[in-house]
Every structure is written in structure tokens, then in C-alpha cells.
Amino acid sequence: MADITDLIMEDHAWFREQFARLDLLRGDAASDAEALHTVWRPLADRLDLHAAAEEEIFYPQLLRVGEEDPAAETLDAIGDHNDIRDGVRDADAAPIGGDAWWDGVTRTRLANDEHMAEEEREGLADFRRTAAAGLRESLGRRFTTYFEQHPHAETVRRDLDPETYVDTVENALDRTTEDPSLGIGSLRAVGGFRDTDSLESAGNTKGPGPQ
Q1: pTM of the model
Q2: How many domains is the chain built from?
Q3: Torsion-angle region of residue 151: left (phi > 0), alpha (psi -120 to 50) or beta?
Q4: I want to staple 178 with a disulfide (CB 3.0 to 4.6 A). Which of 70, 77, 136, 186 is the partner?
Q5: Residue 208 belongs to a domain
Q6: What is the pLDDT of residues 145-159, one digit of tens each?
Q7: Which among 140, 175, 160, 156 is positioned nearest to 57, based on CA atoms?
Q8: 44-93, pLDDT tens digit by residue?
Q9: In a domain, 211, yes or no
Q10: Which domain holds residue 185?
Q11: Would 207 be classed as within a structural domain?
């Protein structure tokens, strides 16, 4: 089983490939809205689900074991996720293939490109250095399972206030004494952020509410 950092990197590579496919379609006079939708819809949905999975599974553990200012890394990441979600919402609100739609797609891409570069250089690198292999693999299993359990992006598409998110997770970490590498119970205690009442305090400002 690949560890969570490998799985996140695989998603990043796929995101870049899908935006490249949209480039090709934009330059093809024969492409139509259906062709654009075929690429955009899975891409937009995976972007939302990927962000939510990171917020539930990866970033709580980075805050636990990271050494290179994980709070700052997490604040930046949650803010980036909000920008990505805003771009997706803007594109989805516009007729597909029109100027406003392409503007939303471009904003999504720019926000995602910035996020991926920072995450690969900072949070993922920090986590590889500090997290035990067993923890990375355990989180990788949870990351994979997350997408099986959440087939619809609408259920997780909402913004989070970065500072409230970090404060809430750090408070949960203060109350958790178990080593998260020892079992799924301790992982759920810290990483199951979206399935607890504390999610409400993390600042759901846009989009559908929690399940």
C-alpha cells in the first residue's frame, strides 16, 4: 500500500494532466460543451474531494508530527483549498465553454498550481521526514477509503476558516495522548475531523452543509 504522500502526489499528477487536456480542447475548434464537461466534471469533483480528504486525514497528522512550522503550512493549505473551491463554484455557475466558465477554470488552476507547489515543497516533504512509515501507510489506506465513502463532491464542498481549523485540530491533539500510529481509534480521534461536531466550529462558510 502506497503511503499518503505518494497518493497525494498521484492526484497532483492527474490534476496537471486534466488541465492539460482542457488546454487541448480549448485549442480545438471542434470541441463542444459535452467534451469540456467530460473532462471538467471529474476534475472539479476530485479537486473538492481531494481537499476534503487532506483536511480530514493529512493535515491533522501534519500538525501532530511536523517540524517545519506545520501550523503555517496548514493555514496556507486550507486557504488554498478555499480558493480552489471558489474557482470551482465560479466555473460551475457559468455556461460551460463561455468566457466566464474559462475564467473560473483558470482561477481554479492557478490556485491549485500554487497549492500543489507549496504542499510538495513544504508539507509533504516535512511529513516524509518526520512521520513513521507505518503512519504514512495507515493514512494512505484511509485516504483511499475516503473516496470510496464519499462518491459525491457536493457533500464535502464547503469552505473552512483556516485559523479556526488549526485551533480546533490543535485542541483535539492536546486532548489525545495515544500515538496515532498505534491504531485506527487514535487516528479517528484526531483525523476524523469532518465526522465530529467540531467541524461546525471550523467555519463552514459556503456550500452544502455536512452530511
Answers
A1: 0.84
A2: 1
A3: alpha
A4: 186
A5: no
A6: 999 999 999 889 899
A7: 140
A8: 999 999 999 999 999 999 999 999 999 999 999 999 999 999 999 999 99
A9: no
A10: 4-202
A11: no
